[in-house]
Design brief:
globular, 2 domains, Growth Hormone, Chain: A
């Protein structure tokens, strides 16, 4: 950022929606907020997460079409190879890895709203590439562009939703992202199995267009306006979101302005994270949870769900089985906001790690019987409940909670840097796992799923001995515990 720019400029993510300057909730200082407007804006913003879900689930119904020996519903005139399949599945993660380093600073320059709106350009261009594809390299370019869109959304959408919400509803609005992503996955599973390749691209391309039309009418984040010194715009945005009188909005605006100024005055660096024992421990916890999230093999399941069921040959239509799994994901994700603050993060993560291990071990056992013993007729029922169990416990635990823990672990002055490090860990491992899964699967599917199960066992003990419980703790109390300070 240029030194000539105004000093009121606030950098990407340095204004934390979680930071409260005086320790009290903003929502407790105001007249009742019309939360319907907050949820309306959050819903509109999360349509972009629905578009992300279509990208993540895209390979599941499309993969079998591309692999067909005599392709009749494929843009290519030949079936793809195992190597092609690995790259088509994994290259999205590379785009998502690069995008945050562009989207973050851009969100500070042009606003959270306009960056989210611009993410649709990537999705639309990507699906156009998919329609025009006649060679594998065109599919790869399309998937890479999809990855840029995914990275844009997952960088800026949580920022926007966190900044428009009051403390009282931030947990609920923040949980919508996971719900909309898995809803997008279910949508592409359900539609993709029963329409042609070309029709599926049209069904997907319409989602970001609908998002742009609806989200265009939503306000910009008041935090962005405050960082730009545009106080009147910030007041207007708050008045729309809160549905309150101008004098009450003015009170909240003063608190937001204080948060902006405090964040700007205490900028941190990577060395600040490494040097401080508390932030160092927070990085280990956050990066560790994200690492095990990816090593559970979730992207393998999402990207290859239909192919996995076809390989299992359970007698149940593979498309139906994938839709069942997608439906389970949606239902499970809806449970997270209800139980997260009742059971606590650590307990749910332990249950999640254990349940994922059981589901993956059972799936590996099925493939062992099928591929080594040779007669799996007595256990053809096993793959569907195994993957249903895996998806239920993933969607209530290791899916959303590592990101929630990340939001709680770091002080505002290093939150953006820490988030970038953890997000990079996520997408690097996401690429590695999906890129080399086919090679491991070629040795025997049971090897891959048992390896994922072993990682879940390690995740269980990591959570048990390293992760701290944050339920019921203020952000300052979390920092005190990370730094070894005893409560007064």
């Amino acid at each position: 950022m240029s030194s000539q720019e105004p000093h009121t400029q606030v950098k990407y993510s340095e204004v934390s929606p979680f930071q409260i300057s005086d320790g009290f909730s903003r929502s407790t200082r105001m007249e009742p907020v019309k939360t319907i407007r907050i949820f309306m804006a959050a819903f509109a913003a999360n349509l972009s997460a629905f578009a992300v879900g279509t990208c993540l689930g895209w390979t599941s119904p499309v993969g079998p079409k591309l692999k067909a020996v005599n392709p009749t519903d494929s843009p290519l005139d030949h079936p793809i190879t195992t190597e092609d399949d690995a790259w088509i599945s994994s290259i999205l993660a590379l785009g998502a890895l690069v995008a945050p380093f562009i989207a973050g600073p851009l969100a500070d320059k042009i606003g959270r709203k306009w960056v989210l709106l611009s993410s649709s350009i990537f999705f639309v261009v990507a699906y156009v590439f998919m329609m025009l594809a006649s060679e594998v390299w065109m599919l790869l370019v399309g998937r890479l562009i999809q990855g840029f869109g995914v990275g844009f959304v997952m960088t800026v959408q949580p920022m926007y939703v966190g900044e428009i919400a009051t403390d009282a509803v931030r947990g609920a609005t923040g949980s919508l992202m996971q719900l909309f992503i898995v809803s997008g996955i279910l949508y592409v599973y359900a539609v993709g199995a029963y329409v042609s390749y070309m029709t599926l691209q049209w069904c997907c391309i319409v989602i970001p267009i609908i998002f742009d039309v609806i989200f265009y009418f939503m306000p910009e984040s008041p935090y962005y306006y405050a960082g730009k010194g545009q106080k009147s715009d910030a007041l207007n945005a708050l008045q729309f979101l809160r549905g309150q009188s101008p004098d009450i909005v003015q009170d909240e605006m003063a608190i937001i302005q204080g948060e902006v100024e405090e964040s700007m005055a205490n900028k941190g660096s990577v060395m600040d994270i490494v040097k401080n024992p508390g932030t160092r421990k927070a990085l280990i916890i956050s990066a560790g949870l994200i690492m095990f999230q990816q090593l559970s093999g979730i992207n393998v399941v999402l990207f290859n769900s239909q192919s996995i069921f076809e390989s299992a040959d359970t007698g149940l239509d593979s498309a139906i089985a994938s839709i069942i799994v997608g439906g389970v994901q949606v239902g499970s994700s809806a449970l997270t906001p209800i139980i997260a603050d009742r059971l606590g993060r650590k307990v749910i993560l332990l249950i999640s790690a254990f349940g994922m291990c059981v589901g993956l071990a059972a799936l590996g056992a099925f493939f062992y019987v099928q591929q080594v013993v040779g007669d799996a007729s007595n256990v053809t029922w096993l793959p569907v409940p195994a993957l249903v169990l895996f998806n239920i416990v993933y969607c209530i635990g290791f899916g959303p909670l590592p990101w929630a823990v990340l939001g709680e672990m770091f002080p505002a002055n290093v939150k953006s840097i820490a988030s970038s490090i953890v997000a990079s860990t996520c997408w690097i491992l996401g690429f590695v796992v999906t890129r080399w899964y086919p090679a491991l699967d070629a040795l025997g599917s049971y090897y891959a799923f048992w390896l994922f199960a072993i990682f879940c066992i390690v995740a269980f003990f990591f959570t048990l001995f390293v992760v701290m419980e944050t339920k019921g703790l203020s952000l300052q109390e979390i920092q005190d515990r990370l730094n070894g300070k005893k409560p007064n």
